[in-house]
Amino acid sequence: MERLKKEFLPLVEENLTKYIDSHVEFILKVGRYILDAGGKRIRPLLTLGFAKAVGKEDITDVVPLSVALEYLHTASLLHDDVVDGAETRRGKPSANRVFGNETTVLTGDYMYATALYIFSTYGNIEMIKVVSDAVKKMAEGQLLELKKIADFDMTEQEYFQIIDGKTAVLFGACGYVGANSVVGDTEKSHLAYDYGIKIGRAFQIVDDILDYTSTSDKLGKPVCNDIKEGKITYPLIVIREKLSPEEREFFKQLVKKINPTDEEIQKARDIVLSKGGHKLAFEKAKEYVRKAINNLEQFPDNIYCRELKTLANYIVEREV
Amino acid sequence: MERLKKEFLPLVEENLTKYIDSHVEFILKVGRYILDAGGKRIRPLLTLGFAKAVGKEDITDVVPLSVALEYLHTASLLHDDVVDGAETRRGKPSANRVFGNETTVLTGDYMYATALYIFSTYGNIEMIKVVSDAVKKMAEGQLLELKKIADFDMTEQEYFQIIDGKTAVLFGACGYVGANSVVGDTEKSHLAYDYGIKIGRAFQIVDDILDYTSTSDKLGKPVCNDIKEGKITYPLIVIREKLSPEEREFFKQLVKKINPTDEEIQKARDIVLSKGGHKLAFEKAKEYVRKAINNLEQFPDNIYCRELKTLANYIVEREV
Fold first, then answer.
1. What is the ipTM of this complex?
2. Exposed, middle or buried: residue B119 (CB in 10 Å: 0-12, 13-18, 19+)?
3. To the nearest whole angstrom, how far is the Cα of A117 from the nearest Cα of chain B?
4. What CATH number did the domain enclosing B115 receive?
5. What is the pTM of this model?
């Protein structure tokens, strides 16, 4: 991952606000506010890494595409903050708090459209198909998540639809775009997409584990937030069958409560951890990482390909 | 216009919800809610009209594109309602009131993305460039409008940027897509785009006139709403230079007021009408209609081309 960062991060940062420099000065201001707040730029790195892994010499034309994919992520964060009524994002007051819901929604729209515009200039129609499909699924996933709040019997399949929308499909699109920029719509591009899906799922599962296992100091946000909000995530799903009838009833009631007590949340956490929900979920995440790395076996064994394997491993090596 | 309606409207209506039939059932419900509330489908008719005007025989492949353009319009209405905190839309409670801001924002995102996905399937990269540019400008225009509220000295250029975003660029995109589906990215397609821009401007100017001249019964919404909200529109812009220093000061103060009185609004209306703001604005709208029709002189003189001329005239023949 260090090599990808060292080689590409300066290029990405340099071009990051280039395409949102609108005559409506406000847009650049809001865009910068959230872009400058940081983020690991994992999506552009993934895109450029795949372009290089399949043999791109000059990545000049892929840089704008990689930036466009970061815009899609940023746009979804902006809309997300409005949807969640978030107070903070990356340690700063969220954009909706600073600029209001109106400006935040519209700047998100502007960034979505700009991303597609960049693809119509530097990309191709196959990429646009994959990217617009990803944006569709992102919205679908979030809508499904809203709808499934407090539904203790949400299926595992629904959980994966939600996390695919939250994280995996955009990672998939990054892999696809990077590979497609060299080899077009071939098997390699689809393997790259699938790699993205799999590390995206692993990433989100690990996030969902950390919500149960970490401390608020380490996480920079309150822990056990998901269950508090009535969201059923993998560490709970995976031990649902092991619950006693009483525990089951406890969870069913808990996820419906608007304001559960700290004791109730603590009890929920204790049950999930005592039944090994975090460990089983971690096994699942590792399985996805293995599958993702397996996809790379069909790629040339160059330095970039090895970096992409490291990146996959990095996801489950975050402290769980 | 009747011919276009008769020939195309059933096709458009038949396909209108086909592409938003998501496995997340909520999306279809919200999408239908606003699509079923009506609307004149002027954007699909414009698109199909231009395809036919330049000689398309079989419009099967243009129908999804025309529906996609209606989705873009619908998505912008959904986000607009959230932005304005609207209570009603087309005589029904607005989507945000019925489904909440979260669902409304995300369904809008879904419809934007679906439209682009349709273009990646049935359209081409030139269309996607024009369409994504239009969506960028739609967001820019709305942001500029927000920013210019209460700014009495807003320029005429800024007014046109705002109304281009509100209406004209999407009409332009409809013209372009229709023509491009037959003749590609040629002069005719650009003339069709420009026709759309011009009738779009005329349409919005007439809307802005009606806000000063009509009655709330006829309009189905409160009159003099723009000035009440601190929005400076063409009927006022065009007589700004004719105001006495006292009248000028009155307007400058008025547009800044959160809750102007009925008397103040009445006075503002009287001043605009007594100086002929509505008549001068109407001249401008007619000028745009003439220019739009002029663009059509370079098209084959067939029934569809004549229909597009009628459509342009219809815009200024609405009761002002």
1. 0.94
2. buried
3. 5
4. 1.10.600.10
5. 0.94
